Amino acid sequence: MKLAVLTGGGDCPGLNAVIRAVVKSAHQSGLEVLGIKDGFRGAVEGDFMPLTLNDVSGILPRGGTILGTTNRDNPFAYETKLDGKLKSIDRSDDVLRNLKERGVDVLVAIGGDGSLNIALKLADKGLSVIGIPKTIDNDLMATDQTFGFQTAVETAKEALDRLHTTGESHHRIMVLEVMGRYAGWIALYAGVAGGADVILIPEIPYNLNRVAQSIQRRAKQGKKFSIIVVAEGAKPLGGEMVVDRLVSGRFDPIKLGGIGAKLGHDLEEHSGIETRVTVLGYLQRGGSPNAFDRVLSTRYGVAAVDAALEKEFGIMVALRGRDIVRVPLHEAVDKLKLVPLIDPLLIAARALGIEMGD
Ligand code: F6P
């Protein structure tokens, strides 16, 4: 049996750890592994590379992906130059043909909801597919956690610790904008871990008055600085998410970004307290995975090879409690996993007096 592995969508800490685990455990069972370069672009264009034990040696702690990735290049709407014009055409048959020509039996797709949606469509066309849930956003259904999330939270927590000392010295409001797309997981976890006073997430549209009042209350108690974590997808009551730009060829063309600046401006005007904004951005995606993500990534890689050996396809490996299980791929991508209003950490945050903006 021959496996092909690709990493699709935004990169995240732990991708190399998964690739390594797939190659090492496949090797134990005598399976061959090929790498596909730059996500589905390589699948469409037939751009492959060998993945031997040697190729994955030493990559466990490395950030990024040795295969390269892209969050554009959807084979079902592939931007192709035809008669001098860029057109979006269905090139999914090229993917099937390229894999067949290389003798690949199984595609292991490491991705978030965009890449796994594409993988599901390829499975519907008869390809044997196994998905592995990746994203710092932690917004995939059917798994307790995606790999990469914990490391992103760790990075955001560290940023908050640093913002605390400068914010306190200058008696300022410090706003930290974190990633997460339409879900507030990174903001919620980092906010609690970093001792934020206000956490604003997309699931709870915020009331600016309430946020300002909570900061003024703190000021009256002698706390002359405040720390706010705002998820990039957060929005004011009655308002919209702030879109940075639209990116063509992407599964979801909307790229969020800019709510931190808006909130910072509005709050300074409202409260009269000097405010500074930091956008954490791609620091959350880069760098070495923490121990939790290395272990989770490794377990996902091993579980994917197990599923291939047992010929179970059209599934995604997932974390449930302490176990790695297999779930139908469509369950993972049917809808996004947002922070429920009864999430235990959200309730704990409220119990601590953290302002959630509602
Ligand atoms: O899905 C991961 C993520 O980092 C989101 O948190 C963010 O909104 C998006 O990707 C950014 O995408 P891009 O790499 O296109 O800037």
Textual characterization of the structure:
By secondary structure, the chain is α/β, with parallel strands linked by helices. The chain has two domains: 2-147 and 289-332, Rossmann fold; 152-286, Phosphofructokinase domain (Rossmann fold). Helix content is 37%, strand content 21%. The protein has eleven helices and 15 strands. The chain has a seven-stranded mixed β-sheet with strand order 3-2-1-6-7-14-15, sandwiched between helices. Strands 9-10-8-13 form a four-stranded parallel β-sheet, sandwiched between helices. Helix 7 (208-220) packs across helix 8. The longest helix is centred in the middle third of the chain and has 22 residues, at 149-170. The radius of gyration is 22 Å and the shape is elongated. It starts with a strand and ends in a 7-residue tail after the last helix. The model has no long low-confidence stretch (mean pLDDT 97). 6-O-phosphono-beta-D-fructofuranose binds at residues 10, 71, 112, 135-137, 179-181, 232, 247, 255-256, 285.
Which secondary structure elements does this structure contain, and how are they paired or packed?
Elements: E1 2-7, H1 15-28, E2 32-36, H2 40-45, E3 48-50, E4 78-82, E5 85-89, H3 92-101, E6 106-111, H4 113-124, E7 128-133, H5 149-170, E8 173-178, H6 185-193, E9 198-200, H7 208-220, E10 226-231, E11 243-246, E12 254-256, H8 259-271, E13 275-279, H9 291-309, E14 315-320, E15 323-328, H10 329-333, H11 344-351
Helix pairs in contact: 1-9, 5-6, 7-8
6-O-phosphono-beta-D-fructofuranose binds at residues 10, 71, 112, 135-137, 179-181, 232, 247, 255-256, 285.
